[in-house]
Amino acid sequence: MNANRRSAGSIITLIAVVAAMALAPAPGVFADDAKTEPAMEGYCPASYQLGGKAVKGDPAFKSTHQGLTYHLAGAEAKKAFDADPAKYLPQYGELCTTALGGTYGNRMPAVPTVFDVRDGKLYIFSSERAKRAYETDPPSYIAKANRLFREPAVGGHCPVSYVRDNKAVKGDAKHALWYANYVYHFADAEAKAMFQKDPPKYLPQFTMTFPKRQEMCALGVSREKLFPALPTAFAVIDGKLYFFWDDDAKQQFMQNPAAFLANAHANWPALNKKK
Q1: Which stretches does DSSP call E strand in 3-133?
Q2: pTM of the full predicted structure?
Q3: How many C-beta atoms surround the C-beta of residue 125 within 10 A?
Q4: pLDDT digits (tens, 9 = 90+) for 38-53
Q5: Closest by alpha carbon to 182, among 215, 205, 210, 148?
């Protein structure tokens, strides 16, 4: 890897190239088995609009939507939610609107007690300070958050196809799934179902998520370096998915994968803490 490849300008350009715009699931499509129940920390999603307040739901009035359980404040709230869940769910899952729509596009968890209902839609925030920032220009924050929320992970490629077919295949927005704060597009319904059963099995190794998501080159990680990887330069080794800067980096790595992998996995915890 030459010096030009290490330049910040090249890294920024590469990140921009691999990011793909696509349609995302509607609010509430969060098939994330790692999430604890109930969703929204037990707050009633319908009460924000029905009563203008954040109200703790009652476990006696619960509903399940897209794999998640919600506690509603009462029979009226449950009836309204069941009739149209998307109407009452927060726009970006449980992510802070300000963080997502701000300078860095961070995917930061929100708290359900700090919220805004605007044009019939619910937005939640990580803090009162975050909400005050949003209130300086709600349309701008919402517009950017909408755009970033719709960007699929892995450049829109199907994570299952790498492991199942040993191919880099663009996913289809018709087979979309929300997992761990990101939208994934899958090549077909079978791939989506396979992912739902065991998401970690198909997720790429060495993924940074701050300040924005980016898969890192496995060869670089083995050398204690962070280089953005391309989703088309990959290898599946012992059932795990690794990406590379380019095909040349992959070829170098594959000359001695066991040694490079040992170094990469040893280096990753410290590299992943860098901000």
Answers
A1: 58-65, 68-72, 111-118, 121-125
A2: 0.71
A3: 26
A4: 999 999 999 999 999 9
A5: 148
